[in-house]
Automatic annotation (TrEMBL):
Any matching Pfam family: Guanylate_kin
Entry-linked SMART domains: GuKc (SM00072)
Underlying gene: phnN
UniProt-recorded name of the protein: Ribose 1,5-bisphosphate phosphokinase PhnN
Example GO molecular function: ribose 1,5-bisphosphate phosphokinase activity
Domain Guanylate kinase-like: 14-190
Assigned protein family: Belongs to the ribose 1,5-bisphosphokinase family.
Reactions mediated catalytically: alpha-D-ribose 1,5-bisphosphate + ATP = 5-phospho-alpha-D-ribose 1-diphosphate + ADP
Biological-process GO terms, alphabetical: 5-phosphoribose 1-diphosphate biosynthetic process; organic phosphonate metabolic process
GO cellular component: cytosol
Amino acid sequence: MDAPSPAVSLPSRGMLVAVVGPSGAGKDTLIDAVRRHFEGSDLIRIVRRVITRPAEAGGEDHLPVTEEEFARLRDSGAFACHWQAHGLFYGIPAAARASVDEGALVIANGSRSALPHFAAAFPRLKVLNITARPEVLAERLAARGRESRDEILRRLDRSSLEVTGDFDVETIDNSGSLEEAEKAIIGFFQGLDIDAGIEEADRGDFASDERMAEIKARYRVPGAAD
Ligand SMILES: Nc1ncnc2c1ncn2[C@@H]1O[C@H](COP(=O)(O)OP(=O)(O)O)[C@@H](O)[C@H]1O
Ligand SMILES: O=P(O)(O)OC[C@H]1O[C@H](OP(=O)(O)OP(=O)(O)O)[C@H](O)[C@@H]1O
């Protein structure tokens, strides 16, 4: 009989990257660029958020729900974490935590104010802070046309909100060309060393180098340096 496979503690292997930053900084646009670049990869998954915002509002492809539906989902434990901002409710489906537990690199459009909730729900959390200069934000929000002038002003009021707290934060300034920022965000994901945890914690548990290579291949970010 074959020896049993060594135990691989998958729950600590995956990672959640919360993309945060002020309204208009380019979070959705850059997440879309990441989606296109890593298309077909089983390893990188992008969360579809549940939001009490109508589908026709435009912007990201979220799952639109009413406030009643949101409350029912929240109370039944459907969210890994949830928060409220701009008069809207946002939820990260519990499936995101399941994907992280399977070893995936999961990307979610987050909120700076909700980072403590993210940290509680996801043991391996990285924060990617997308920024842009205030005048650039104002221009982009007006051009995006999703919110009224008053809503835009309220959103810009929040835009000084810094990322505070003890988080592992990387910042990308998207005040310049989109091409430049896309390069930076793709480089960020390619550079993520999600093998590191495996090396440190489990090397001793693996029966052979082949088995180690097999496991490492599973967690590898496409395009990352070996
Ligand atoms: N580098 C850039 N240059 C020009 N326009 C941009 C750039 N990045 C994003 N945009 C535009 O700015 C607007 C806001 O971007 P969006 O991705 O919706 O921001 P966020 O999700 O952070 O609110 C969108 O209309 C988008 O097309
Ligand atoms: O606490 P903050 O960091 O200010 O973020 C508040 C919320 O605003 C953003 O969502 P939304 O998609 O509604 O807005 P945006 O695309 O304009 O950022 C972001 O994803 C958060 O859910």
